[in-house]
Each structure stands twice: as C-alpha cells, then as structure tokens.
Amino acid sequence: MKWHRILSLIATLFFLACACVSCESGSDNTDPGEVLPPTGDMDLVGSWAGYFVSGADDAIDPDAVDDVFLDFDDDDIFAIGVITQEREARFIGDATQFVCPEGSLNVNYTLPTRTIFGGVLDHYTWNTQGLDPYTADVEAISIYGEAFLSIYFLNGVHWYTGTPEADRDFWQFQFFNYTTTGISADIERIAGQWQIGDAFWKENTLTFTITPNDDGQSATVTGTDTHDPQNTFEGTIIEIHYDDDVHGTDLYDVSLTLNGTFDLEGLATYVSSYDTQGVHTESSLAIGVSDGDRMVTGIAAPVAP
C-alpha cells in the first residue's frame, strides 16, 4: 500500500511540476495556482519530490550524465525535499533522511539561466539493532546538482564523501518542484492526527496529534508509538514565512523531544491531495527531525476521523 501511495504521489507531482495539469482539472483541497515561471527566478526555496538513485547496478559515470528522466527501481530512495532560505535542506523518506544543516547548502544564483548547488549531507538510516529508540546510522554523502532554465526540476549526482576519489561510485538524483503560487504555511491545514508506519521498527506505528495554539502560527505536537515499551513525543511545529516569498512555501519548523530526553530538530512540508487526470494522491505531511544520532522521518498519512 505504501509503495502505491509513493508511485501515485510522484506521478501527480510530475504532472504538476511539468505544467501538464491545468488549473481547471480541480483539486480535493486547495487550488494549486500557477506553476513557477520557466525562466527568471531561480530560487530553490520550497518543496520537492523525487528520488536518490542507489544500488551497485545504478552507479554511473558522472561525465556521461545527460538531463534525462531516470528509470527508478525498488532500491532507489523516494523522498520529499525541503529547502529553506537559510540554506537548510532535508530530504525526507520513509526509512531514511538526508540532512544538510542550516547555512550549509551552497547555492550559486549568479548565473542567468542556471542555479548550481551542492554540499555535504548527513544520510540517516534506521539502526534497529540498537537498544535505544529511533537510533540511526549516519554517513556523510556529497551532492552536486543544478536547475537549468527553470526550477521545475533538479538533477545531479551524489557519492559517499569518505570514499577515496579513485574508488568512488556516483549515483544520480532527480527532484520535481512542488512549490506553487497561492499556497503558504497554514497551521490549521495540518491540524489533527497523522500516522507514520514502520517508524524505526517494522510494523511500529507512530501516531501524533497537531493542536494549533492561540497565536495561529504554531501548534503543539504530541505523539506515541505502538512499540513495547512505548515511546512518546512532544514538541512544537511553527509556520515558516518569508517577506519576499512570491511563490508560496508550505514549510514548517519542527522541534520534538523523544521520551522527555532527546531533543530533535527539523522541518516539515504539507503535500495537498489532488485528483487530476485519473491520478489520486492522499494528503501527506512529510516530517523529518534528527539530533545526530536519532531521527524521526516519514511521509505521514492523515488519520481518518
């Protein structure tokens, strides 16, 4: 079921990013508005959806990479990406997370038709052999990529930073833009209960509740999982707004404390539900927090009332 959700999600985002879906086709929640212009503003701030290619069979020669759509397979990593104006980036998957701390993503906006970016990301993967909850193995990867002529589409390569240059393998990544005009962070839209399946342990379900505060821009987050012994979460989620945000960015700052002891920080983004050209996707909340040793990550589904 989760794999079908991911396939339909990337398919719909592909239609939206490539401007193949007209505004008249409708949506379940919010009109997505106009897609971003093909030239001009090359700002990477916003939300993204796509894949990090992985696996020995998919290693490539970086000098021979063309800007073509990839043929993704089962060992590739689907993720929802979040890039902030403060040059923080998180790519949030169901069992893994790629984290570039605030101020660490290098972006070159000086070229008229091309935005170049790169940096070193912490790649988190679950370590279910550990005795502590939500622990992860962390390994550094480097990325280098570009947006050419528009910011509909990011393309680039990644590699393991610690591998000697002579022994390195390279893999591609591709992400489609999900930022649209007319949409911005709204704490009321994400209020309610959400679930992440297979959170850390297989068949462990994490359920968290988002309760808006009186200020209208933040909310309290509480959560528990089904593991024995049970793990608990509490924290806050805050809308992110920028004064010069001309496109609309549905982004949120997240702070969670695990079991009253471990403080995790991160980002979240809301993906609206669309029903266009026969492809339906559920509303989803991509949420990713970490502290260097632990993480919570997932593309959460809403809990039916």
Based on CA atoms alone, the radius of gyration comes out at 19 Å
Helix run count: 1
What is the arithmetic mean of pLDDT? 81
Q: Could you give the order of the helices and strands?
A: HEEEEEEEEEEEEEEEEEEE
Tell me, what's the shape? globular
What is the rounded distance between the termini?
A: 20 Å
Classification by helices and strands: mainly beta
Strand order of the largest sheet: 1-2-3-4-6-7-8-9
Q: Got a strand count?
A: 19
Q: What share of residues is helical?
A: under 10%
Beta content:
35-45%
Poorly predicted ranges: 1-40, 274-280
Biggest beta sheet attributes: 8 strands, antiparallel, barrel
What does this protein structure show overall?
The chain has one helix and 19 strands. It has 305 residues and is mainly beta. The strands form three sheets. The protein has an eight-stranded antiparallel β-barrel. It has an eight-stranded antiparallel beta barrel with strand order 10-11-12-13-14-15-18-19. A hairpin with a 2-residue loop joins strand 16 and strand 17. It is globular and about 50 Å long. The N terminus is likely disordered.
